[in-house]
């Protein structure tokens, strides 16, 4: 990632999604303006994926968020919560002013999401290795009841050593849960270092294939690749292994382990906000 | 002579009968369905029977996901595995997410006797009882397994129920089960005894033997371990001044600990906890393990008599 490789100008056939992702990145920083500490890295690496899901893929309606036939998105990597909050706010699930309560007493926006506190959240994740089994249950329950519901869940690559993921992966494949898609956000870093150093789970694609999944690798920041990959359906569960950049958009820390849990100085935060505002402004101009 | 019933087949048949009326009921098996009495359910409702293989954590998460779609999942397997192995899924996916999942631990306590401590479940009331909003049940007899199964499926929210393995008779009248309600089994003023789960049969025998000696015990069956029917305990202890709890569970965090909390807070009387010693129980036939640890009818008769005699007369 170089200085020139910023989020603008428009790079894909989905300029509205690019702008939505830029606004979501700005929303993440808005939460840091409320409380300047949080899991920046994973939120920013996953934001293009989650924006694509909410913008093009999920059959959801913020005006009818509990429709039994809706599609579901579960953030298995619950510490990327700011990503989901940022996108839900942008999609109109709640008033964006709630972003200013992040980290405050009795906020609905915790460090990990709570489905009973915030409309649009579908599972209480945070402990890693839980989302895939819950998502498998949703896919199974929808199929049993003849509902059109599909379910997507996003895992971090640092989450893969949790054995419960592999129990769920086996169950999903055995039951042919074609309504289930797992996205692995491979940003290659976790709190103690690179995933290769801490616990190397490569080859991730081969492991998932061996468990009976259909697997596709994509650039997790390329909306032209992401949108069709997330929409595609198979006769068995699908996994999308998305290669991403930790903390993308915050140029002082992006691509580094330091982005994982970020405690910016006021100056660092101010620079990041200015960059994000500039990205939103220039994309808005292009789209005007 | 009371007819004896296998608790697992009793439970499985009860859920299978309920499922005829409620198509939201689905059953999960971690290679455990047949031993949980679900052979018939599987044959009748294969589309509502989910096999996960030996993966209790995964099964519990899948159950939570199923429940979010409006179904009523029932997951039954060996008690130690559905509580200890899958505790985090129970705590977060079922408890914290407040999902309508029913988890049933069979072969509870040390009824898996000779299979040893890996298969014993002597901490389930304690650990599952720590999860906010989870009801913990331990039916007293065979009929109550049927009634409690209906009550837990009617209840909206997470439930854990422990059943045993040894054949059970009947102690309480059928058809009156209510979550959170105590069941008076014998009345008396000498002291109060509170018990839970299938060991109630041994306790009733001991209490009846002491009645022959003139020691009339107020015996309360407590098939809901959590939330405890505190009012029933206090009403009795305020009359007798002394309560003894009996359970096939470690002393820590079980029925006795809960009764002690309630009685101590009100300074209502003396509490003695009769439970399984806090050690890894060894191997042996179930009846002999019960006797070794003083939890069979004969051992309980001796202990309850001694505790009655040890209590100050004005207690």
How does this model look, in words?
The complex is a heterodimer of chains A (288) and B (315). With 288 residues, chain A is α/β, with parallel strands linked by helices. Chain A has a single domain (15-287), classed as Rossmann fold (3-Layer(aba) Sandwich). Helix content of chain A is 40%, strand content 11%. Chain A has helices spanning 15-34, 40-57, 81-90, 131-144, 163-174, 195-198, 204-210, 223-231, 266-287, and strands at 72-75, 151-156, 180-186, 189-190, 193-194, 214-219, 238-243. In chain A, the strands form two sheets. Chain A has a five-stranded parallel β-sheet with strand order 1-2-3-7-6, sandwiched between helices. Chain A has a two-stranded antiparallel ribbon with strand order 4-5. Chain A is globular and about 50 Å long. Chain B has 315 residues and is α/β, with parallel strands linked by helices. Chain B has a seven-stranded mixed β-sheet, with helices on both faces. A five-stranded mixed β-sheet of chain B has the order 7-9-8-11-12, sandwiched between helices. Chain B starts with 6 loop residues before the first helix and ends in a 5-residue tail after the last helix. In chain B, helix 1 packs parallel to helix 7 and helix 8 packs across helix 12 (297-310). Chain B is globular. Chain B folds into two domains: 7-162, Rossmann fold (3-Layer(aba) Sandwich), CATH 3.40.50.970; 183-309, Rossmann fold (3-Layer(aba) Sandwich), CATH 3.40.50. Chain B has helices spanning 7-21, 39-44, 56-68, 79-85, 87-96, 124-129, 142-154, 200-212, 230-240, 255-265, 286-292, 297-310; strands at residues 25-29, 49-51, 72-78, 102-106, 135-137, 159-162, 183-186, 191-195, 217-221, 224-226, 242-246, 270-274. Chain B is built from twelve helices and twelve strands. At the A-B interface, helix 4 and helix 5 of A face helix 3 and helix 5 of B.
């Amino acid at each position: 990632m170089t200085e020139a490789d910023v989020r603008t100008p428009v790079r894909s056939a989905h300029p509205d999604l690019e702008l939505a992702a830029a606004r979501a990145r700005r929303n993440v920083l808005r939460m840091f303006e409320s409380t300047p500490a949080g899991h920046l890295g994973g939120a920013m690496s996953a934001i293009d994926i989650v924006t694509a899901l909410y913008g093009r893929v999920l059959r959801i309606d913020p005006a009818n968020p509990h429709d039994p036939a809706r599609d579901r998105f579960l953030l298995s990597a619950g510490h990327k919560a700011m990503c989901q909050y940022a996108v839900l706010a942008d999609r109109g699930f709640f008033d964006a002013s709630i972003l200013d309560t992040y980290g405050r007493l009795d906020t609905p926006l915790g460090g990990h999401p709570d489905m009973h506190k915030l409309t649009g959240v579908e599972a209480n994740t945070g402990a890693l290795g839980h989302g895939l089994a819950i998502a498998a249950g949703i896919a199974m329950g929808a199929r049993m009841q003849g509902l059109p519901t599909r379910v997507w869940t996003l895992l971090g690559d640092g989450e893969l050593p949790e054995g419960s993921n592999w129990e769920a992966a086996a169950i999903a494949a055995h039951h042919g849960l074609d309504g289930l898609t797992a996205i692995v956000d491979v940003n290659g870093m976790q709190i103690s270092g690179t995933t290769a150093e801490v616990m190397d789970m490569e080859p991730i694609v081969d492991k998932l294939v061996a468990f009976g999944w259909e697997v596709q690798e994509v650039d997790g920041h390329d909306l032209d690749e992401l949108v069709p990959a997330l929409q595609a359906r198979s006769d068995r569960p699908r996994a999308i292994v998305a290669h991403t950049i930790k903390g993308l958009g915050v140029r002082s820390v992006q691509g580094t382990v330091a982005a994982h849990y970020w405690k910016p100085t006021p100056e660092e935060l101010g620079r990041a906000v200015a960059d994000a505002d500039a990205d939103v402004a220039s994309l808005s101009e292009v789209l005007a | 002579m009371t007819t004896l019933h296998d608790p697992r087949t009793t439970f499985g048949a009860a859920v299978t009968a309920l499922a005829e009326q409620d198509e939201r009921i689905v059953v999960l098996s971690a290679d455990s369905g047949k031993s949980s009495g679900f052979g018939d359910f599987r044959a009748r409702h294969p589309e509502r029977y989910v096999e996960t293989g030996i993966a209790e954590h995964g099964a519990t998460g899948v159950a939570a996901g199923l429940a979010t779609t409006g179904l009523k999942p029932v997951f039954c397997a060996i008690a130690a595995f559905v509580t200890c192995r899958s505790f985090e899924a129970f705590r977060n996916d079922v408890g914290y997410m407040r999902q309508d999942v029913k988890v049933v631990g069979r072969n509870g306590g040390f009824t898996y006797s000779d299979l040893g401590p890996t298969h014993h479940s002597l901490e389930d009331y304690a650990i599952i009882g720590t999860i906010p909003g989870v009801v913990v049940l331990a039916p007293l007899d065979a009929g109550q397994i049927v009634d409690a199964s209906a009550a837990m499926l009617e209840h909206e929210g997470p439930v854990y129920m422990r059943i045993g393995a040894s054949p059970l008779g009947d102690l309480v009248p059928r058809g009156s089960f209510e979550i959170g309600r105590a069941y008076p089994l014998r009345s008396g003023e000498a002291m109060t005894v509170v018990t839970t789960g299938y060991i109630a049969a041994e306790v009733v025998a001991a209490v009846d033997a002491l009645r022959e000696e003139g020691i009339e015990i107020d015996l309360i069956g407590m098939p809901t371990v959590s939330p405890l029917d505190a009012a029933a305990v206090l009403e009795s202890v305020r009359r007798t001044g002394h309560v003894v709890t009996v359970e096939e569970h470690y002393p820590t965090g079980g029925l006795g600990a809960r009764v002690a909390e309630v009685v101590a807070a009100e300074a209502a009387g003396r509490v003695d906890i009769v439970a399984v010693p806090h050690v890894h129980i060894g191997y042996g036939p179930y009846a002999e393990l019960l006797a070794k640890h003083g939890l069979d009818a004969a051992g309980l008769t001796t202990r309850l008599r001694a505790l009655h005699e040890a209590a100050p007369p004005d207690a």
